[in-house]
Amino acid sequence: MDTKKWYKRLLFSHFAILFIAGAVISGGVYAVTYANAAADMKKANRAYAERVQDGMTSSLKAIELMLANQLVNNEAIDGFFNDPSGSSKLAAYQASGQIAKIRSNPLIHSVYFYRQRDRTVLTGGYRQALDDFPDKPFVLELEGKPRADHWSAVRTYSEFPLIDPPERIISIVKNAPHNQGLVVLNVKADALLAAAAKQRSGTPHYMDIADGDGQPLYSTGPSASIRSGTLTRLRSDYIGWRFASGTAGVNLAAEAARRALLPLAVILSGLAAIVAFILYMTRRNYRPIERMVRRVSTYGGERGEAAGDEFMLIESAFDTMLSRMALIDRQQAEKNAIAARGRLFAELQDGEQGPSAEEWAEYARLLGLPEDPRGLAVAIAEIDKYVPRMRQNRQALLDDKRRLEAEALRAAHEAACVLGLEWISGDRLAILIREAPSPSSPDKILPVRGMLDELRMRAGRELAFTVTIGLGSAAADVAGVKASFGEALSALQYKMTAGNDRLLLYREIRDMEHRVDSNCFRWLEDMVHHFRIPSPAWEADFARIFDYLEKRVLRNEELQLLLNYLTHRFAREMEEISPEINEYWHGVTMPSLAEALRETWTMREIRERYGALLRELYGRYAAILEAGSPFHLIFDVKTYIEANFANPDLSLNHISDRFGISGKYVSQLFKDRFDVKFVDFLIGLRVRQAQALLLETETSIHEIARQVGYEHAISFGRIFKKTVGVSPGDYRRQMLRGRIGHEC
C-alpha cells in the first residue's frame, strides 16, 4: 500500500506553483531578451545603412571639393578656356595635365572640359569637336539648363567607345572659369556602389540602392526569400539616391534564445535550488509524519487495514490506540500500588519531612495501609558482606534476594505483619511492619522484634548470606513513620562494632553509644613512633587500640575516621623513611588497607586484616634496617636540620654527636642522597628564612641574623650577599620599592 499519497500531493502542489512561476519568469525573460535583440538588430542595421550612405556622400563630396580646388586660379585650365585662337596645343597639353591630376582618384571615371566658344571638348587624351564627342547629348542637355549643385542621375558613358565598353556613371558639372564652358567629372557608379558590399562583409545585413525615381541601382543580395524585411530606409539629398536595408538569414528567435541562455541558466539554477529546498523542507517537515506512519503501519497490522492517505492511516491507528490505552489504563491501575510503594519508601528515605497527612491518606488508599499510622515501624535488613558475595556469584545472590523478600512476607506474626517492602539499595531491604501489642505486653515493639529475629535466623539457615536488621521505634503519627525509618538506618551505623547477623534496636543501642576517646589518637601516635624506631612495642599499641574499639559501641563513620587517620599518619612517616619502604607502602600496604576498610564489616575482621598488613610492612622495614641501609638515617638527619637550622651550634660535629656517626660520613650520605652539600643545604634554609623575615617583618637585621642561626650580623651579611647578590639591607629596600611600585 502506498502510504505517501499526502506527501506526493503536497509536492505536486508546490511544484505546480513553481512550474507556473518559472514558466512566467522564463517567458518574461525571453520576451525582454527578444525585444532587446530586435532593437539591437535594428540599431545595427541602421548604423550599417548610415555608414554606406555616409561613405558614398563623403567620397563624392571629397571629389567635388577636389574639383573645385583645382578650378580655382588654375592657369592651365584658364589657358585652355581663354585660348584666343582655340588651337593652341600647349594650352590643350597643359589642361590635359590637370585632367590627369583630377583623375587620380580611383572612383573618377573621366573628366572633360567643354569650351562653348568653339564647341570643343578636351578629354584626358585628345581634343575634338562636340559633334564628334560620345557624351554630346549630355552636354547639349546641360547647355539648356541652369547649373545644379548635385550629381546627375546614373547614366552610361564610355570615354573610348572603340576600346572600352560603356560604364554606369554619375556626373558633377561645374562652370568653367569666367563661364566660358563646362567642366564635367564622371564617377564610376559601380565602384561607388561597391562600398556597400565592403561595408556588408561579415554582417547579416543587405542593402538595396535606387535612384531618385525608384529605379534599382544596386543590391547586395541575398534573395528576397530569406530576407527578414526592411528595417531602415534612408534618402540622400546630396546624391538623390534611396537606401533600403534589412537583415537576411537572421533567426531572431535563436539569437534571443542565445542571449537568454545566461539569465535563463541563472533562473533555472535558482529554480533548481528552490526545488531542492522544497524537497528538503517538505521532506523534513514530513519526516515526523513519516515516522508516525511507519510506526503505526508496522505496529498492530494497520498497514493492511487502513486505506487512503497518511492521515487516514493515522486516524485508524489513533482509534486503535484509544482502545489499547483503555486496556493499558486498566493494567496501569494494577501497577499503581507497586509504584506508590516505591514512592513511599523513597520519601521515607530521601524526603526532608516525609509524606504529609494527605499523602499518607493517598498511600493508604493505594496500598491498603491503615489510615492511622500509629503502631507502624520500619525495619531495614542489610545483607552482610554484600560486595564480595556479588563478585563471587551475582546470579545466586540475586536469586537469594528474591527469596529474602518472600521470607519477609511469610514472616507474619500473630501480633505483627508485613505491610510492604522495598529494596532501597542493592544490599538493603526496607520493611514496613504493623504491630498490635497484646494487653500482657505493653511494649509495642516486642512482637515486631520477635518476628524480625525469626526472619534473621531463617535467612541464615536457608540463604547463602546472613542479614543484619536495624529496627526503628513504633510511630505515633505520620511523622513518626519517617522517624522510624531514620532510626533503622542509624541502628545499622553501629554494625561494625556490634557485628554481623544481629538485630539492632535503635532505642537500645543509642543508650550504649560512645565517642572515640582522645587517648586513641595518642596511642596511635605511640604506635607510629614505635613502628619507625623500630620497636616491637608497636604491636602492643595496636592491640590496645583495637581492644578499646571492640569494647565500645561506635558509629561506622567515627571508626572510619580513626582508621583513615591511622593510614594518613603512616603515609607521612613512610615518606621520611627509605625509598624501598615508601614504595612498598604506596604500592601494596596502603591500597590493601583501603580495600580492607571497604570490604570488611566487623571490627574483628578489620583488626585481623590491618594487623597482618602492618606486620608484613614492619618485617620488610626491619629487614632493611638489619641489612645496614643508611638511607633512613639520612632522612632523619634532613628532618632534624629543617627543624633546628636556627640553632647557631648546628654543624657536622653537632650532627655527629646527635646521631652517633662521623660527620664526614654524614656529609657523604647527604651529598649522595640529595645532591647538595650539608653546608649549602643549611645556608639555603637560613637565607630563605631570612628573606621571608626581611620582607614580612620590620625586625632589625641583627635580630634576624640571630633568629636564623648566626651570632654575628657581619657573618650573616657576608653569607647573605654571597648567596643573594646584595646585602640584607639593600635586599629589603629593593624588594619593598618593587612591591610599592607594583601596587601603584
Automatic annotation (TrEMBL):
<protein>
    <submittedName>
        <fullName>Helix-turn-helix domain-containing protein</fullName>
    </submittedName>
</protein>
<dbReference type="InterPro" id="IPR041522">
    <property type="entry name" value="CdaR_GGDEF"/>
</dbReference>
<keyword id="KW-1133">Transmembrane helix</keyword>
<dbReference type="Pfam" id="PF17853">
    <property type="entry name" value="GGDEF_2"/>
</dbReference>
<dbReference type="InterPro" id="IPR020449">
    <property type="entry name" value="Tscrpt_reg_AraC-type_HTH"/>
</dbReference>
<dbReference type="InterPro" id="IPR018060">
    <property type="entry name" value="HTH_AraC"/>
</dbReference>
<feature type="coiled-coil region">
    <location>
        <begin position="387"/>
        <end position="414"/>
    </location>
</feature>
<keyword id="KW-0472">Membrane</keyword>
<keyword id="KW-0812">Transmembrane</keyword>
<dbReference type="InterPro" id="IPR009057">
    <property type="entry name" value="Homeodomain-like_sf"/>
</dbReference>
<keyword id="KW-0175">Coiled coil</keyword>
<feature type="domain" description="HTH araC/xylS-type">
    <location>
        <begin position="635"/>
        <end position="734"/>
    </location>
</feature>
<keyword id="KW-0238">DNA-binding</keyword>
<keyword id="KW-0804">Transcription</keyword>
<dbReference type="InterPro" id="IPR018062">
    <property type="entry name" value="HTH_AraC-typ_CS"/>
</dbReference>
<feature type="transmembrane region" description="Helical">
    <location>
        <begin position="260"/>
        <end position="282"/>
    </location>
</feature>
<keyword id="KW-0805">Transcription regulation</keyword>
<dbReference type="Pfam" id="PF12833">
    <property type="entry name" value="HTH_18"/>
</dbReference>
